[in-house]
Amino acid sequence: MRIKKPAPAALTLALWSALSLGALAPMAALSPAWAATGAASAVTTDGGSLQVKLEKVKLANGFEVILVEDHRLPLIAFNMWVHAGPRNEAAGQTGFAHLFEHLMFAGTRHIPRGQADKIVDAAGGTDSNGTTDFDRTNYFFTLPSNQLELGLWLKSDMLGYMIDEVDSVALANQQDVVRNERRQSVENRPYGIVEEAVFQALYPEGHPYRASVIGSHADIQSIKLADVKAFARRYYRPNNTTLVLAGDFNPADAKKLVEKYFGPLKAGEAVPPVHVPQPTLTEEKRLAVTDRIELSRLNIAWHTPAVFQPGDAELDIASHVLGGGKSSRLYKTLVYDKQLAQSVSVSQYSLSLGSVFNIEVVARPGKSLEEIEKLVNDELDALSQNPPTPEEMARARAAVETGLLTRLEKVQGLADQINYYNQQAGDPNYMAKDLARYQAMTAAQVRDVVAQQLKKTARVVVYATPGEQKLAAEVPTPPMPTRAGKGERESLNADAAWRKTPPKSGKAKPLTLPEGKRTTLANGLTVIQVPNPGLPLVSASLVLRAGQTANPADKPGLSSFTAAMLQQGTQTRSAQQIADEAAALGATLTSGAGRDEARIEVSSLKRNFGQSLALLADVAMHPAFAEAEVERQRAERLAALAQQREQAPSVAAVVANRVLYGEGHPLARSSLGDEAAIQATDAASLRQFWQRHYRPDEAALVVAGDLSEAELKSLVDSLFAKWERPTAAAAAVNTAAPQPIDARVVLVDKPNAPQTALAVVAAGPKAGVRDAADLKVMNAAMGGLFTSRINTQLREVKGYTYGIYSAYSMNRDSGNFAIRGSVRTDVTGAALSDMFKEIDGMRAKPMGAAELSRVRNAQLLALPGLFDTNRVMAATYASEWALGQPADSITSLPRQYGAVTAQSAYQAARTRVDPAALIVVAVGDKAKVLPQLEALGRKPLALRDVTGAPVSAAASAVPASAAKP
Predict the structure, then answer these.
(1) In sequence order, what DSSP letters do the residues of 207-243 get, joined into one string?
(2) Is residue 588 domain-shared with residue 613, that is, in the same domain?
(3) Which of 434, 426, 425, 369 is nearest to 400 (CA)?
(4) Which terminus of the chain is less hemmed in, N or C, by CB atoms within 10 Å?
(5) Which of the 8 DSSP states describes residue 387?
(6) What is the CATH classification number for the domain harbouring 456?
(7) Running DSSP on this structure, what letter comes out for residue 569?
(8) How confident is the model at residue 654 (pLDDT cuts 50, 70, 90)?
(9) Are 890 and 880 in contact (CB under 8 A)?
(10) What residues does the Peptidase M16 C-terminal domain cover (predicted)?
């Protein structure tokens, strides 16, 4: 996957950072109503059967297009699957399919390198990326509905003319990027090498699933340009590709344009099906893996039936029964009752050449993997002998149904699901048949399949324990070529002059954003409704001003401890009853605390929303804070602190907050708190915090989805009207300003780390400042976007990183600016030097007209695509309320962004970005990184531990031999 900055959960003036950068598109007018109201969806549930209205068309060259007309939003999802993945790789070329995915964005005959992303962003694109799985590679983005032809032009040129431009320079660059991705996602991530070991134990040499999708350093580096050309000729042809268009378009128009852009592409030779027998294990395989981790982990994995084959759905249900959340058997036994495990995850990973059933259990500190394994075996034996209960079957089916509908909520999710069914089931409209599998099966069938498939003699057992990480021999990164060699270019398709010019956009529909209607109950509770008919789904967020800034000075982490305790029992429900009830409803219930606020959120099917909201109301208003539950939560939080120390980016974030805000500031410590505070927290302090901060006059309930005003009013009156408002004034929160330390560079030692995790931070403005839009536009160009100056230079030009981004976090009373990412260890200093050059360049002169237009218009036109789920709408309005923003802060975004000029953005850079104030926090191998940091010349330089505490002079000494550059 090419990492791109994801759409945040809440798009606020304080937290929102634009995804897009581009030019060309005119500014649209603002309409007061949300376009989704009353719009037709392609997905229907008539008669209780889930159906999708679609049409599948096959061109003469074999290219498939599936048209899904859906008018809920003025958006079109483009989702293109090339039916090739690691299952199609040749021996010694692990990671080839994934590397090819990256190369697909390196430019085409008609689109210069780096321009495709800018064009997508300029048009208001969202969800733009590519991913590789064992059986396929997909490429996708979502555009406003007036950009149908532009999207088809882009996709057809990627498929038909990428090979014309790929050369040794592009290949070398993306080899560096992908190897950085491997370092970040496998070697520098806890348990990354463990997951790789599981697949290598399951599959023999030569099986296409044996290696990780991302491949090995040696294989990635050994790939030649000739290999790339051959892979393109064989697999990247129209007769091996399917495009799903889902959204707001006319099918007749779409078919004509698909023929225009894809029809002329030449078909390749027929791709033969891959036939590889599924391996059979006749005895248990056990192995031990040591990794740089704090908590040990157990993995048990089996070969299971291929996707959509008999037994696949039964094992999916079994995965829910065994490890599908807090209501599952293994969670109740290992996490809740015995308190041996920090987490449990069970999955049926369905694939075309045979699936994998995996049980994953992370142990609590000091707990025995042997004891955990015995209890897992006991539960497996029980399920193989006795069928799931009716309640367990109902909960599993509810989870499957809700999960599927939730994926369909976004048009891009709908398109991807259709493509999945088309390839794996041979029927794009397999949705109803898929759900029917789960409804038709019996509990006895689940038991029988478990007994047949999950045998002790046919499994792999992996014990992962803390210790030395053992990696393959280092593969050098060769110098990147500066120019392409002669004869590197070739073509598969004849050129056409008309392809050289991007098509003009169609007539834009009025730009609309969801408008929340505010009312206030007599007890002071604010209620905000965001109607969104279409799919029968509803989401709610109860937000309270009870975040980190409300923590007492001696109890960091108390706000998040309190929020976590809400689901651990009420006056009428136990913790397990809450979990079972939520699961039975197919609802997702969460609670947590951020910097300014605490939230309780729930999402469910509409038919179950009344009961789901009642559950939310109960945990908010009647928490029990039972001593036994406090002890359980205490142990979980202490283990979570240990997990935090495993992850270099998390350590960088924790240390950055401490050195930025200064000792004693509530935002200086981890949201979990520290060991001393966790140990000192008791039921009385939790209850006191809840009583002071969980009150209706300091809360807002935001509801988004398929619910009428009358339906919501009835629910709110019955559930929240009797919530009593205390007579005492609301408790004050800490509004102190940050007090940064003097050091300009802070290093945290992580010996032998293959990457350095960076957090470059400074104090920033709070929410609601006048130049917020100017800041966002300026930052989008500097480091906020995939196509930003910083990411382009460090990733696309130098190949130092998999991705690096900057963002402003604007809180209610303070804020910060941060640049975050991981870079290869040996180029830490060079990457920082380049980063500061880009910052200086941003402050040197105003943006040119083209760059400003791209950044500003991209943010404006992308807005509708960033409000495409109920959860996002509810979370966004909840954040705006918690930050004290006006009721029109969302609907006024287009006006605010439209007012940004080159001069106002430049002024924001000059006044809000001070390079001298930035503190560099680096988490990496001190022996290799310290000399590079010293050479930067930023002083003072300080050494800190993983909590941000100073390291003593003796402990910070570096041997002379290690200090050599």
Answers:
(1) -TTSS-TT--HHHHHH--HHHHHHHHHHHSSGGGEEE
(2) yes
(3) 434
(4) C
(5) P
(6) 3.30.830.10
(7) B
(8) very high
(9) yes
(10) 223-399, 683-858
Domains: count for the chain: 4
Residue 277 lies in a domain: no
Q: Where are the beta strands (DSSP E) in 267-333?
A: 285-291, 297-304
Q: Which of 893, 953, 946, 894 is nearest to 923 (CA)?
A: 946
Distance from C-alpha of 89 to C-alpha of 303, rounded to nearest angstrom:
21
Three-class SS state of 589: strand
What residues contact residue 888 under an 8 Å CB cut-off, 6+ apart?
A: none
Same domain for 560 and 604? Answer: yes
627-637 pLDDT per residue, tens = 999 999 999 99
Place of tokens 């199609």: 88
138 and 266 share a domain? yes
Q: Rg of the Cα trace of the chain?
A: 27
| 28 token code pair | 């649209």
Q: Which of 432, 466, 500 is the endpoint of a domain?
A: 466
Query: In this structure, what is the dihedral angle of CA atoms 105, 108, 110, 113, given to the nearest 10 degrees?
Result: 50
136 bridge partner residues: 133
DSSP per residue, 92-105:
T-TTHHHHHHHHTT
pLDDT digits (tens, 9 = 90+) for 234-287: 999 999 999 999 999 999 999 999 999 999 999 999 999 999 999 999 999 999
3-state secondary structure at position 116 = helix
Report the chain's mean pLDDT, rounded to a whole number: 92
613 and 587 within one domain = yes
Distance CA 883, CA 300 (A): 45
- For residues 11 and 18, give the distance between their C-alpha atoms in angstroms, rounded to a whole number: 9
- Calculate the alpha carbon distances from 215 to 89, 134, 758 in Å: 10, 11, 25
Dmax of the chain from CA atoms? 81
Sign, CA dihedral 419-421-423-427, equals negative
Instruction: Give residue 247's identity as a one-letter amino acid code.
Output: G
Task: Give the whole-angstrom CA distance, residue 892 versus residue 895.
Answer: 5
360 Cα distance to chain centroid: 20
| In-domain check, residue 566 | yes
Query: Among all chains, which residue has been given the structure tokens 């689901």?
Result: 567
Question: 368 and 225: one domain?
Answer: no
Residue 536: beta bridge partners?
none
**385, exposed or middle or buried, with CB in 10 Å at 0-12, 13-18, 19+?**
exposed
Q: Are 863 and 937 in contact (CB under 8 A)?
A: no
- Which strand ranges, in their side-by-side order, compose the sheet holding 801-810? 801-810, 815-824, 755-764, 919-924, 745-749, 941-944
| Confidence check: pLDDT of 47 > 80 | no
User: For the segment 730-777, what is each residue's pLDDT rounded down to a tens digit?
Assistant: 888 988 899 999 999 999 999 999 999 999 999 999 999 999 999 999
Q: Is the peptide bond before 503 cis (omega within 30 degrees of 0)?
A: no
Tell me if 821 is assigned to some domain.
yes
Show the beta-strand stretches assigned E in 813-960.
Answer: 815-824, 919-924, 941-944
Q: 586: left (phi > 0), else alpha (psi -120 to 50), else beta?
A: left
Q: pLDDT tens digits for 109-137?
A: 999 998 999 999 899 899 999 999 999 99
**Residue 954 clears pLDDT 60, i.e. is over it:** no
List Cα–Cα distances, 512 to 42, 80, 860, in angstroms: 21, 28, 11
336 secondary structure, DSSP code: I
pTM for the structure as a whole: 0.93
User: CA 35, CA 74: separation in Å to the nearest integer?
Assistant: 7
Amino acid at 904: S
Q: Residue 460: which H helix or E strand, with range?
A: strand 459-466
Give pLDDT, residue 21. Answer: 24
Q: Are 418 and 66 in contact (CB under 8 A)?
A: yes
Q: Which residues pair with 135 in a beta bridge?
A: none
Same domain for 808 and 862? yes
Torsion of CA 577, 583, 585, 591, to 10 degrees: 80
Domain assignment present for residue 784? The answer is: yes
Q: Same domain, yes or no, for 646 and 698?
A: yes
**Could you tell me if 264 and 300 lie in one domain?**
no
Backbone angles phi, psi at 759, to 5 degrees: -140, 110
